[in-house]
Target: Arabinosidase BT-3657-like N-terminal domain-containing protein
Amino acid sequence: MPIHFGSNIRALLLALGFLWGLTGSLVAEEKPPAPANSGPFVFAYFNTGNAGESQGLQYAWSRDGYKWTALASPNGTFLKPEVGGKLLRDPSIVQAPDGIFHMVWTTDWFRHGIGSSYSKDLLHWSPQEYLDVMQDFPGTVNCWAPEIFYDAPSQTYLIYWASTIPGKFPDTEPTGEEFKQFGTRASHRIYVTTTQDFKKFTPTQLLYDNGYNAIDAFIVADPEHSRYVMIIKDETAYPTAKKNLRLAFAKTPLGPWSPSTTPFSPDWVEGASVLKVGNEWLVYYDAYTRHRYEGQKTTDLENWQSITDKLTMPTGMRHGTPLPVTEVILQGLLSSSKAP
Model:
């Protein structure tokens, strides 16, 4: 016996059918989420020369990690250095889980502390602080290229840098550059302090010593292999200069770290930094004798391919750090750079 629907029920079914079609249409037209590590990106750096060191923080931006365009601050800098020796070299920025950006930098060629500040938008920075990280090591010559790394599992920030302490590593002092004013040679090693609130810091300790002069460490997490990766510069100067980049690995960012690999970079480079774009690791470095930025890419940290010919970088760009940002942050920077 056939079933007959009343007019009200037929209207209801028609309405439900319309809504179902509309919902399906909406679902079909919804944009898929952006893939991880897809950008946009901002590169914090400093400009070459004495004027560039004193001028302060600079930014470039990119959507693909290859073509970088400088952002022009109305004041010539996004942060003018005011602490330590009032220089800003080697800026390193990391974004915390709460969205705050934390930055550290080199304040002078020969001091035993570093600069620190934080920002919500990369435009407005907190009052600068001088962190006297090597105060417990008398005679420390320098604190170069500090980097900041956030370790999510421990909810801890690592701040690490290169320092020379005369007499601490006598076996490698003959291999280092001469510091005439200190009557010694470089014996750089990587040191670290940690913090969870930027108020209390753990005592500084040695982070990496592989038996040679080393500077410009850069740590990244490699969760696919349950490890951490450090890029390190072999700063050996004598009897044969090395000046190249190597890798070390560890299960935790505080180590113990493995012996370093053979070099993966050309010689005469420094200031390595890493950006994950899609499934590729892009490694940028300052080829300071060739007066340009160079780079390589890899998917496995074993097989490398040069990307130097594909890179477009701002003129005069020196050692810095790239990081992913939201579109809101980028648009704020772009608007600021267009301001009169």
Summary: Residues 1-35 have pLDDT under 50 and may be disordered.
